[in-house]
Structure formats: C-alpha cells, structure tokens
Amino acid sequence: MDKKGKGIVDERLRVAKLSVFSNLLLVIGKLAVGWLIGSVSVISEGIHSGLDLVAALIAFFSVREASRPADDSHQFGHGKIENVAGTIEALLIFLAAIWIIYEAVEKLSHGGMAPEAGWGVLIMAISAGVNFYVSSRLMAVARKTDSVALEADALHLRTDVYTSLGVLVGLILLKLTGWWILDPLVAIGVALLIVKASWDLLQEAFMPLLDQRLPEEEESQIQERIQRHAEKYVNVHAIRTRRSGAERHIDMHMVFCKRTSIQETHEISDRVEAEIQEIFPKSTVLVHQEPCDERCGECQFGHKEGRQ
C-alpha cells in the first residue's frame, strides 16, 4: 500500500475510533440519567446509543479489514466486509426499536409517574450536540474515502441527533404539563424514527452484496469517458458494473476495426481504463477487445461505416 492509501486508511480508522469513544460516553451518561430520573424515553435513548456503540465497533473493525489487500482467498479484495457491517448495523437498529416500543407500551399499560426532566434535558442536549459533530466528521470522511461502513455509521448517528432532540422536547413538555404519558409516547416516536433509519441503512448496505449495478449517475460518468474515444472503436457493449465496499468493478466488450493492430487496441483500452479510474480511483476496469465482423466491410481505423 502506498503512502496515499495508508493515509486514507489511517483517517478512516481515526474517525471510526472517535465514534466508538463518543458513543461509549453517551451510553454511560444516558443510562445513568435515565435510571436516576426514571424516564423510559431517556433509557430508550441509552439503549439506542448502546446499539450505536456496537455499530461503531463493527464499523471500526470492518474499515480495518476492508483495507487489507487482495489475497489468494479473496482475489477481489475485502471490500464487501463494509457492506456486511452496514447490514448488521441496520438489523441491530431495528431490534433496538422493537425493544423500545415494547418498554413504552408496558409503561402505557401500567401507568406511571412523571420523571424529573432536568437532568434528562441536559443529557439529551449534550447527546444531540456530540452526535451532530461526530456524524458530520464521519460523513465527511465517508464521502472523501467512499466508505460504506462509515457512511452507515454517520447516518445512524444523525438519526440519533433527531431522536435525542425529540426526547428533549418531550421532556420539556412533560416538565411544563406534568403529563407522564408524554414520556412513553415520545419513546415510541423515537422508535419509529429508528425503524425508518434501519430500513434505509439496510437498503444502502445490503443491495451491493447482491452485485447490484452502480447508480445511474455513476454509469453515465463511465459512458461519458468511453465516448471520448468513440472515433477509435466500432462499438462498446456488455457493460457490467458492481460495487464492493469502496471498490467498483467495471467490465465491457469493446469492438475495434479488424485492421487495427493489437498494440493500438491495447493502448486505447488502457486509456479508457485510466480515465474511468480518474473518477473512481478505487476501481477495477476490464476491457475485453473484439474484432469487428463481416458487416464492418472495408472500414478503416476511425471510419464510421459499420458502427452499431
């Protein structure tokens, strides 16, 4: 791995460690305050942050493992580890939401007293601020390094910002009105937001495991690079794309005039591959070269006759 590649890995690991550390502190703070004031909504947020901590640990280890180079057992690299990690995160978030709803319904069924809101408001405000900062750092590095695991962790924490603010507002209303029922109702609202977040994360992380093609805008960029050399080939077909973690795999069949030399077709293919790798640095591009068939007639290099 060159210095640039090592620097990218180090940056990803640093921000992943920051997520682990911040979530650990928030879990301790939320659970302690929730137990102290008897608030199911604050405790539910503590459980949510516990899942955030597990997710952050998964993201950290997946980023580290996905950065390993290809080997004999994994000849296409280890990039899909990030997608597996994101899928696990989504399932964990969903389970947390179910647990929160169960606890809130139990409190609604058996009644309760209004918790003391003061410390709860403080810990929720701290949580929202910390998670906003950490999620912003994670998303910036995720976009810079094209990391699925860090993006999933960032989206996860950004949802935690909104749920923390929801609990904060609920506690303030509870303090003003004294209505204990607001506490479990806010917890259920938090849980529903978590369910939505888990579904979004599941789609983002799981689909690449099925070798889904790249998004339309990315394929358009690839087509644009290929078309730059349209005067030097007959046609391009059988273009296939997929993603594996931060890596993209692109292959295609490029048809050349049968009078073009092997050296020329190889040089043109290399240029196409290099230009695609300019927009997607962590990509593997394979161009299969084919001669034109009899329909091409007497076309010469660069001649449009016979193009499909």
UniProtKB/TrEMBL annotation:
Keyword Membrane listed: yes
- All residue ranges annotated as the Cation efflux protein cytoplasmic domain in the record: 214-292
Membrane topology is:
Multi-pass membrane protein
User: Transport as a keyword?
Assistant: yes
Give the transmembrane ranges. 20-40, 46-63, 84-105, 117-134, 155-174
Question: Which is an annotated Pfam family here?
Answer: ZT_dimer
Q: Which domain of life is it from?
A: Bacteria
Localization recorded for this chain is: Membrane
A Gene Ontology annotation in the biological process aspect, one of them, is: intracellular zinc ion homeostasis
Give the GO cellular component terms, alphabetically: plasma membrane
Domain Cation efflux protein transmembrane, chain residue ranges per copy: 17-208
An example molecular function term from Gene Ontology annotations: ferrous iron transmembrane transporter activity
What keywords were assigned to this record? Membrane, Transmembrane, Transmembrane helix, Transport
- What's this protein's family per the entry? Belongs to the cation diffusion facilitator (CDF) transporter (TC 2.A.4) family.
- The protein depicted here goes by the name Cation efflux family protein
Q: Which organism is it from?
A: Heliobacterium modesticaldum (strain ATCC 51547 / Ice1)
